[in-house]
Amino acid sequence: MVRRLSTVVLLIGLLVVGAAAPALASDCNSGRFCAFDGTNYVHPKLLDSGAAAGTNNVDVADDLVSSGKNRTGNRWCAVNNGFPGDDTIWNFAPNTNVSTLGSQNNKTDHFYVRTSAQNCT
After folding, report:
1. Interacting residues of 113 by C-beta distance below 8 A, sequence separation 6+
2. What span, in angstroms and rounded, lies between the C-alpha atoms of 67 and 16?
3. For the segment 59-100, what is each residue's pLDDT rounded down to a tens digit?
4. CA distance 70 to 100
5. What is d(CA 52, CA 73) in angstroms, rounded to the nearest whole number?
6. d(CA 112, CA 56)
7. Could you give the C-alpha distances from 15 to 1, 31, 75, 121, in angstroms and in order?
8. How far apart are CA 26 and CA 46, in angstroms?
9. Measuring CA to CA, which residue among 74, 80, 63, 86 is closest to residue 114?
10. CA–CA dist 32, 104 (Å, integer)
């Protein structure tokens, strides 16, 4: 009887701990833009931002972004530092998920945030 009771208490404890577990790295809340190191939103999460439209130079670790989730109504523009100027390499449309940037993987240095009506220029 004591053994069964111990097992039940252990199982209940595991369920409570599981319910309180933190969100996964691939999660991205509404109103946020999240960029990930790996394709298919694999951690680590490099950026979790709610920057407003018109914001330039939202910094992210250079040359690591491979996927992203845009949970905002704004356009997020992935930018590579170039010479003599920056090059926009990817356009995350409002409310979209991009599981891979393909040939543009690992080239983003920062982001510009624009309204949905603006282009990434």
Report:
1. 33, 51, 52, 53, 54, 55, 56, 58, 72, 74, 75, 76, 77
2. 32
3. 999 999 999 999 999 999 999 998 788 899 999 999 999 999
4. 13
5. 10
6. 5
7. 21, 30, 40, 49
8. 11
9. 74
10. 22
